[in-house]
């Protein structure tokens, strides 16, 4: 090999080492970035005139673990769904005071107990008008609390619908970014330009997407990633799909509430099988199938108000039958879930003049609240399922059944959410261990590159000295 060829080989080698050093330094600087994957230089050694030349970087790729990544997307969708479910079940349980940890009775039970105690006092002193007024006061307090709970329907429904709207906006935003990154990656990859950082950005968007809806991904030979829901709805193909959430049916364009392709009548709700979006859809579901489901998270809002309706209607039946006439007035709710017409009040004439209260039946009313038992058919009024399976219980038992149902649903959701969070964390850590940056390995690589750089520098220095010697000989 000539001196000029040797010098050229050394220069190319230094350039390769410089590029490798830049890649390793980039890895080190991004070691704490959770959205960064380790970049790897692939070397090739060309041959000229039968002799190996200095190594060149043929490509810069990134560390990948597609199987673990897909498992993570699945676990992230589970976590997103369970986290949202837990939020909804907590909301319902807290409305009922079903999960209080103070040791006091939940609000509705405490009011029923005070109402029952007022009847006891009146039974002991039937001629006392103050005790009659107390019965009416306690009855009004109990009725007001039931009306307050019934009045939460619109607020809870609107909040869940807003959650879906927010999720759909996030999905549309992510799919647009993924499609744009697909175009950039395909173009740069075709030109031989490293695209690892862009692929990291795309993975970050896909990860955010997987929290909202269960997904699976496919990559083509151009480096583009197509994204589908686990229910088969395409989110990203050659372009990004756009979606909209319709809260109210609008035939013929939107024959039912749900998720549609933007600007079309194509209902894709059934394709959103997981993630936080599915949790909200389940929560709002009012179909007969949802109400008959044994899963408390499916049709949860409708079941909640059906339970309240059943409790109010049975309370009215028990008290009025024992009283021998209307103590409570009750307007049955309309619709599924019931609207806010389901009202309970103390009969107006009694409220206006508590002295007209019939004290002679005070004991009968109090005893009826403790002794009147109801069948499961009575608890599920008019055959409308509400998730409660209780029988041979008094009105306190119905109230306890509702409280237990909501508290148990919250506890189960929290347990499942915690389990999903642990799995999500485990898979994320496993993925990071394979694709993330190990500082010790990168520093060892930098040390090796530094030694190689020094060796090549010595080669160049030796060749320079040989050139100088030859020049001096020529003189």
UniProtKB/TrEMBL annotation:
Pfam families: Flg_bbr_C (PF06429), FlgK_D1 (PF22638). One of its GO terms (biological process) is bacterial-type flagellum assembly. It is found in: Bacterial flagellum; Secreted. Keywords: Bacterial flagellum, Cell projection, Cilium, Coiled coil, Flagellum, Secreted. One of its GO terms (cellular component) is bacterial-type flagellum hook. GO terms for molecular function: structural molecule activity. It comes from the Bacteria. The keyword Transmembrane helix does not apply. Residues 107-322 form the Flagellar hook-associated protein FlgK helical domain. Residues 433-473 form the Flagellar basal-body/hook protein C-terminal domain. Residues 164-191 form a coiled coil. PANTHER family: FLAGELLAR HOOK PROTEIN, FLAGELLAR HOOK-ASSOCIATED PROTEIN 1. Belongs to the flagella basal body rod proteins family. This is Flagellar hook-associated protein 1. It comes from Ferrovibrio terrae.
């Amino acid at each position: 090999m000539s001196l000029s060829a040797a010098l050229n080989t050394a220069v190319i080698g230094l350039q390769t080492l410089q590029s490798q050093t830049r890649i390793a330094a980039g890895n080190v600087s991004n070691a704490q970035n959770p959205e960064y994957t380790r970049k790897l230089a692939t070397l090739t050694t060309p041959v000229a005139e039968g002799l190996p030349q200095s190594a060149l970087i043929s490509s810069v790729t990134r560390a990948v673990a597609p199987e673990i990544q897909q498992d993570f997307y699945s676990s992230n969708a589970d976590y997103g769904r369970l986290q949202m479910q837990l939020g909804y079940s907590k909301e319902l349980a807290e409305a009922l005071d079903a999960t209080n940890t103070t040791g006091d009775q939940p609000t509705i039970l405490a009011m029923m107990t005070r109402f029952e105690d007022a009847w006891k006092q009146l039974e002991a002193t039937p001629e006392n008008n103050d005790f009659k007024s107390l019965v009416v006061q306690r009855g009004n307090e109990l009725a007001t609390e039931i009306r307050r709970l019934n009045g939460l329907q619109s607020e809870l429904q609107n909040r869940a619908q807003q959650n879906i709207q927010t999720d759909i906006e996030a999905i549309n935003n992510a799919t647009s970014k993924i499609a744009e990154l697909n175009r950039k990656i395909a173009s740069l990859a075709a030109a031989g330009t490293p695209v690892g950082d862009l692929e990291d950005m795309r993975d970050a968007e896909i990860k955010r997407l997987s929290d909202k809806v269960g997904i699976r991904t496919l990559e083509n030979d151009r480096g583009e990633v197509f994204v589908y829901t686990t229910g088969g709805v395409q989110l990203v193909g050659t372009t990004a799909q756009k979606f909209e959430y319709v809260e109210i049916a609008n035939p013929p364009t939107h024959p039912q509430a749900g998720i549609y392709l933007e600007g079309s009548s194509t209902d894709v709700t059934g394709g959103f099988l997981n993630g936080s979006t599915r949790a909200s859809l389940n929560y709002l579901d009012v179909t007969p199938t949802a109400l008959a489901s044994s899963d408390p998270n499916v049709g949860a809002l409708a079941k909640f108000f059906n339970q309240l309706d059943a409790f109010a209607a049975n309370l009215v039946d028990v008290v009025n039958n024992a009283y021998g006439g209307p103590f409570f007035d009750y307007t049955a709710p309309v619709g599924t879930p019931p609207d806010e017409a389901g009202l309970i009040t103390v009969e107006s004439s009694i409220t206006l003049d508590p002295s007209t209260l019939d004290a002679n039946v005070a004991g009968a009313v109090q005893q009826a609240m403790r002794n009147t038992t109801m069948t499961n058919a009575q608890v599920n009024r008019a055959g409308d399922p509400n998730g409660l399976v209780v029988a041979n219980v008094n009105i306190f038992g119905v109230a306890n059944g509702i409280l237990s149902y909501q508290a148990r649903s919250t506890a189960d959701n929290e347990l499942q959410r915690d389990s999903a969070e642990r799995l999500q964390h485990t898979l994320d850590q496993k993925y990071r261990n394979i694709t993330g940056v190990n500082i010790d390995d990168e520093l060892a690589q930098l040390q090796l590159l530094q030694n190689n750089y020094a060796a090549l520098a010595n080669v160049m220095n030796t060749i320079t000295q040989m050139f100088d010697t030859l020049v001096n000989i020529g003189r």
